[in-house]
Amino acid sequence: MQKKKLQILEAAMRLFARQGFHATSIQEIVDELGMAKGSIYFYFKSKDELLLSIFEYYGEQLYNGMAEQPGEEGLSPREALRVQLERQIRFIRENVEFIQMLIKEPLIGVDHVQLKSFAFRFRSRYLNWLNARIQAIYGNEAERYWADGVLILSGMMNDFMQGLLIDRDAIQDRRLSDFLVRRLDDVMRGMMEAGEPPIMGQSGFRKMIGFGTPDGETEQKAAILAEIKGLAEGTDSEETVALLEAELNKAVPHRVVVRAMLALLEKQAEPEWNDTLQRLGRILEA
To answer: Which of 171, 174, 137, 130 lies closest to 152 in space, CA to CA?
Structure first.
């Protein structure tokens, strides 16, 4: 992201947190930055677009914290989950004022179609990430309970984050992440030992995390990727497509890596591939 655009986002978030979204004017944002009012419209058409960009930017920051960081390659799946949960808790703590503003102030007049789409994608990616972490920890033996474990852990995390928003001093990041992982152990072991039927099967869960999105986004992505694999079969691009597919199948794909692979494919590809690659790029950037 361009440095100036990031500065605008951060200044707007500070003001929205202090004053509220509706009470903050574009003029106040540019005054905070010491820039000309017209400059902000080069990056954002309106205050609504600015707010949506803040959601997307900070959502991406949260996703980045969910990904494996340098030096974490040797962690066990269980410890990796604990570390990543701790980063999420710290992120919420560091941005608590802005999140409190969103809860207190109804965003009347904002493009709710785009907000709803963003919220759906955010939750789907988060649940998919938790599902991958639980699979890695408990393995195929617990497969029928993966989805129930995801929903229980997500619910616990959400409720404790509500507590953090009310009193940030009441919760310690490391202690809470330890606690959540231990309770997840209790839940998964309890379900496996009881042997009762799961509440949410994997089929229903897959619909929740992507299949059945408003635009059929997941189905479209899978279909286009299959088309590209067919085009690349037997060519020099076959390995690049395999690497792209592996990255997209991760719980939290690195967008920079995905963009780099798409750019490489565009250079390697035959002219008739262009339309297919562009369609995949549009879905991934949505």
So the answer is: 130
pLDDT of residue 215: 47
Show the domains of the chain with their CATH numbers.
55-194 (1.10.357), 217-285 (no CATH)
Handedness of CA 270, 274, 275, 276 (dihedral sign): positive
Could you tell me the pLDDT band of residue 107, with boundaries at 50, 70 and 90? low
pLDDT tens-digit readout, 172-214: 999 999 999 999 999 999 999 999 999 987 777 877 766 444 4
The whole-number pLDDT of residue 211 equals 46
CB count in 10 Å sphere of residue 15: 19
Mean pLDDT computed over 155-160: 92
270 token code pair: 């035959």
| The model scores a pTM over 0.90 | no
Give yes or no for a contact between 188 and 145, defined as CB atoms under 8 angstroms apart. yes
CA distances (Å), origin 238, targets 72, 261, 278: 30, 12, 18
Chain centre to alpha carbon of residue 226: 24
